[in-house]
Amino acid sequence: MKTEITDIPEPDRVPGAPHPRHAPRVIGQGAAIAAFTEAARGGRLHHAWLLTGPRGVGKATLAWSIARWLLAGGDSADLTVDPATPEARRISALSEPRLQLIRRPWDDKAGRLRAEITVDEIRRLLSFFHLSAAEGGRRVAIIDAADDMNTAAANALLKVLEEPPRDALILLIAHQPAGLLPTIRSRCRTLRLSPLAPRQMAGILADLGIDEDAEALAALSDGSVGEALRLAGQGGLDRYQDLVDLFATLPRMDRLAASRFAEAAAGRAGAGGDPFDLTITVLDRFLTRMARAGLMGAPLPQAARGEGALMARLSPDDIAARLWAGAQARLSARARAGRAVNLDPAALVMDMVLELAQLPPAQSAPPPRG
Fold this sequence. Notes:
transferase, DNA-directed DNA polymerase activity, alpha/beta, 16 helices, DNA_Rep/Repair_Clamp_Loader, 5-stranded parallel sheet, globular, two-stranded antiparallel ribbon, about 10% strand, Rossmann fold, EC 2.7.7.7
């Protein structure tokens, strides 16, 4: 049975939060906004812009704000556009003919989102530019996220960037731009977005009705509102607490607890998010914070009960910090590769956890008292 379009999850939306196209404004990224508007007003509008920065700091919100501003003929310095304009209403409804969104497509046969942006999606972008050229005027494409493109898609996009259509603007959102082809990066102008300050984070979370655990969410999301919302909506703090509790059993890891943690990553993805993605996220955050603890001391505020004491025990110095940082880079790459070839999530997570349990800091640390 064919899936109704309204039932398809949006891969570029944080579960439990509005899609970025509905956000009225960009918060805390004044430098990036100024760089774009100055280029546009000065007649120096490059044909391709690479929006980079940590996941969830507003890259997609900025891309949609740029699209509205350009297509509605806006003149505000902060990219705001009256939401009542016809262009803004059409963009919100994904019915603006001069705008094309490229994201991971739905596989109706498999009943899930594809793991990658395929070459067929980039060919659809080529058709959009070709068919809309006759209408004239500015046309905008948003690729969210460029990190998701497979090799064939990236090569097809490179051809577009090498010979850009007239009056076309391509906005590429990239969480890890180093993974893109160097030739793609070299043909784009980069806008770097920064993590939000704690005060900005607190204010945004309060506006969204999240007061409880706001401090822990801000710590774990590392200045990313999008990540804070995703973690809040998917029970990320509980998942992170499970991970901290698991590593507190070192140097003799509780295998039963490790198995339960790994099995929880194998649930089916849905409107509430993907359990495997959530698990990889909390593992990545844990390793990043572990590495920082070795360099700067146990983190404050803590993101879980007992986190500070655990990190002081397992990452007491810069030598340990380097080991945890190396593990983070290695396991992050393994997780991406495993998803691309559809490895069993539970088995993959279990292998990762057991590998971490064998790191020298984990093996040499004495068990916690009490």
